[in-house]
Amino acid sequence: MAEVRRGVGEFALGVGVPGPTVERVLLAVSEAATNVVVHAYPRDLDPAGLIQVEATFDGGELAVSVADTGNGLRPQSASPGLGLGLAIIGQLAHAVELLQGRDGGLHVLMRFAIVNA
């Protein structure tokens, strides 16, 4: 998780995203990546499942995607989480899209409007 946060944070700061916005972005990215770790792949999968994180900046908007090729978005009654991750992401990001991956899994696309201070 630290590598994901560091990479996205360095990118966001490098394109001029203000510090307080970077903190919101990092929290949302952490929630999305944690969802992958907890829900996307069976715990005993060997080798471990992959997570793909990409960030772009265009026209005053930072877009960050977190994708996996795991189980996709399905209700899980035995989920170890509280089910709040997507709600938190929705409060932090300007827009959120949940897309079915081509090879299964889930692609969470988060968009953050950047207003320079």
Number of helices: 3
**Nearest-integer average pLDDT:** 84
What would the CATH topology be? Heat Shock Protein 90
Helical fraction equals 25-40%
Q: Give helix and strand order, one letter per element, not per position.
A: HHEEHEE
- In what order do the strands lie side by side in the largest sheet? 1-2-4-3
Low-confidence stretches: none
Largest sheet: 4 strands, antiparallel
Give a written overview of the molecule.
By secondary structure, this protein is α+β, with helices and mostly antiparallel strands. The protein is built from three helices and four strands. The chain has a single domain (2-113), classed as Histidine kinase-like ATPase, C-terminal domain (Heat Shock Protein 90, 2-Layer Sandwich), CATH 3.30.565.10. The chain has a four-stranded antiparallel β-sheet, with helices on one face. Helix 1 runs antiparallel to helix 2 (19-40) and helix 2 (19-40) packs antiparallel against helix 3. 24% of the residues are buried. The model has no long low-confidence stretch (mean pLDDT 84).
